[in-house]
Amino acid sequence: METRRSSGPAGVPAAPDDPALADFPVQAPGTRRWCFADQLGPHFLDAPDQPVLLVESRAVFRRRRFHRQKAHLLLSALRHRAAELGDQALFLRTGTYGEALDRVGDPLSVCAPTTWPARDLVLARPGVQVLEARGFVTRQADFRRWAALRPRQRLLMDDFYRAARRFHDVLMDGTEPVGGTWNLDAENREPPPADGRSPAPPPWLPVEDEIDEQVRADLYRWAAEGDVAFVGDDGPRLFPVTAAEAERRLADFLTHRLPAFGPHEDAMLAGDPWLAHSMLSAALNLGLVDPLDVVHRAEQAYRDSVAAGDPLPLNSVEGFVRQVMGWRDWMWHLYWHLGRDYRHGNALQATEEVPAWLAELDAEAVHANCLSHVLADVRERGWVHHIPRLIVLGNYALQRGIEPLAMTDWFHRVFVDGYDWVMVANVVGMSQHADGGVLATKPYAAGGAYIDRMSDYCGGCRYDPRKRLGDDACPYTAGYWAFLDRNRERLAGNRRMRQPLAGLGRLRDLDAVVEQEGLRGTDPP
Fold first, then answer.
1. Over 50: is that where the pLDDT of 22 sits?
2. How confident is the model at residue 13 (pLDDT cuts 50, 70, 90)?
3. What is the DSSP string of 457-504?
C-alpha cells in the first residue's frame, strides 16, 4: 500500500482518522485480511502473502433484483480472486456474512467497507480490526478537514478537485496546473462525429473462462430454484474481473482510446455505446485497480507523449483524470459527509413509482428513440456512459417526478458499476436535484434540443425535438416545460433558474402542454 502524505489537501494538516476506526488495537502483521467483493485488488493487502478471507454471501443477491450481468461480474471477480490466491485465501460460500464469520477463528482486519450497512456490520463484529478505507485517491480524514472549512452549499467538486490535484501533485507544473487551466471541460462538449462513426477503435474485451461458466450455471440454477431473480440479458462478460484484466483495459485505453476521449465525452451514438470511454468504472469499483495509480499512469502517458513531440490532447487527459480523482472521489466522500439521511431527500416532492416498463428494461415498449436505445443498451450490457444516465434516464425521471430513492435503487441494481455509495449522491443530488441544491446548483433538466445536438437518436424518431405540443411532441421537450411549471415555486429562489422560469410566461400554450404531459404521465413515451 502506498504511503499517503501526512498533511491534508492544500497544506491543511490532516484531520484525525475516523474516530469509529480508532479504538481498535493494532494487530500483528499477518492478521487475516477480510476483503469484500469490491476490495479485490492487491492494494487492499499489507503484504503479498497476507492471509485473506473472502465471503460469497447468497443473501446479497436475495435482497435486490440485480442485472444478471452485474451478479455475474461480482461472483466472477470474487471467485477469480479466490483462485488467484489459492491456499492463501479462506473462501467461504454461505448464506450470510454472519454465518461465514462464525466459522472463522482467526482475528481479522478489514479495510473500512464502502457502504453504511457494511461498515455497521464490521464495526459491530467483535475481534475485527477496521482499518482506514482504501480504493480512493483522497483519504476520508483529509476530505473531512477540507469540507470543515466550507459551508454546506460550497462543497463544489471543482474546488475539491483542485485541492486534490495540488495535494497529490497530478498534472501540475510546480504550483500551477499543466497548461495553465484546471478544468478543460469547455473543450469536451462536441457532438458525435457527423458520419456516425466511433471516434476511437473498439475497446479490449475480456474472454470468459471456466470460472465464468460455473458462475453462469450457478446463477441459472439459483433463478430456477426461485432463490433469486434478475433483470437484463445474460453475458458475455464485458468487464474485467482480475487485476491483470483491469491492467489490460487500462493499457488499451491509454494507448488507443484516450486521445479521442475528451472532445466527444458527452456525445451519444446509437450504434456505439462505448465511444472513447475508458470502461474502467466497474474495475475501479470492484477494487481491482488503485485509482491513484490510474491517474499517475494517465499523467505519465501525457508527459511521455510531450517528450516524444506528439502530445496527447490535454483536454482528454485532464478530463479523464477529473473523472477518476475528481468526480469519483467526490461522490464517495459526499456519501459519508452528507450522512445516512441524505438518501431520503425529496426537495421537489417527486412521488411517482418507477414504471414497470422502466423497471423491466422493456425498450420495445418505448417509442422515443433515445430512451428506447438507452434502455436496450442497459438491458444488453448493464452499462451506458454518464450522459445517457444523466440526460436520458435521469432527465426522464426528473421531469416525470419519479421518487428519487426508488430511482437510486433502480440505478444501483441495473448498472454493473452501481453501488450504494456511487448512486446516492449521483442520483439524489446530481440527477434528481432531490437535495435542493447541495450538490448541483440547478436541476439537470433538458429538452429534446440538447439530446438532438449531442446524439444521433432524434433522426427517424416519431417525436420532433422542436415540438412541445401534439402527437409528435418530444416527451423531453414537453416534459421540460411541464417540469418547470410543476416546480416553479420550489425553484423560484434559484438564481440559475430565473431565466428558464421566466420563459414559462412566454409560452401561450403552456396550459395545453401541462395538460398533455399530465395525461402522458409515466406511460411509455
1. no
2. very low
3. -STT-SSBTT--SSTTB-HHHHHHHHHHHHTTTTTTT-GGGHHHHHHH
Instruction: Give the integer Cα–Cα distance in Å for 386 and 326.
Output: 15
Q: What is the pLDDT of residues 140-154, one digit of tens each?
A: 999 999 998 887 667
Supply φ then ψ for residue 7, to 5 degrees.
-105, 155
What is the CATH T-level fold of the domain 343-520, as seen in this structure?
DNA Cyclobutane Dipyrimidine Photolyase, subunit A; domain 3 (1.10.579)
pLDDT surpasses 70 at 280: yes
Instruction: Sort strands 32-35 and 52-57 into parallel, antiparallel or unpaired.
Output: parallel
Distances (CA, A) of 133 to 36, 201, 224, 417, 445: 12, 36, 38, 19, 35
Hey, where are the domains in the chain? 9-131, 140-206+241-337, 343-520
Q: What is the DSSP string of 131-156?
A: EPP-SSSS-HHHHHHHHHTS-GGG--
Q: 365 vs 401, 409, 448, 479, 523, CA distance in Å?
A: 20, 22, 20, 19, 9
Residue 275 in contact with residue 191, Cβ under 8 Å?
A: no
| Mean pLDDT confidence for 265-284 | 96
Pick one of 1.10.1760.20, 3.90.1150.10, 3.40.50.620, 3.40.50.2300 as the CATH number of 9-131.
Answer: 3.40.50.620
Mean pLDDT of the chain: 92
CATH number of the structural domain 140-206+241-337: 1.25.40.80
Q: Which position has the higher pLDDT, 156 or 210?
A: 210
- Grouping H, G, I as helix, E, B as strand and the rest as coil, residue 109 is strand
CA-CA distance, 475 to 522, in Å (whole number)? 10
Q: What is the pTM of this model?
A: 0.93
For 348, residues 6+ apart whose C-beta sits below 8 A from its C-beta are 398, 401, 432, 433, 434, 443, 487, 490
Each as own residue / partner, the long-range contacts of residues 351-357 (CB below 8 Å, 24 or more positions apart, any chain) are 351/401, 351/403, 352/400, 352/401, 352/402, 352/403, 352/521, 352/522, 353/402, 353/403, 353/406, 353/522, 354/402, 354/403, 354/406, 354/407, 354/410, 355/402, 355/522, 355/523, 355/524, 357/524
What count of residues does the chain have? 525
Residue 305 sits at φ, ψ, to 5 deg, of: -70, -35
* 9-131 matches 343-520 in fold: no
CA distance 255 to 302: 11
Nearest-10 Cα torsion for 471, 476, 480, 482: 40
Q: Is 190 helix (H, G, I), strand (E, B) or coil?
A: coil
Task: For residue 127, name the pLDDT band (cuts at 50, 70, 90).
Answer: confident
> 140 phi and psi, to 5 degrees?
-60, -40
| Statement: residue 25 has pLDDT above 50 | no
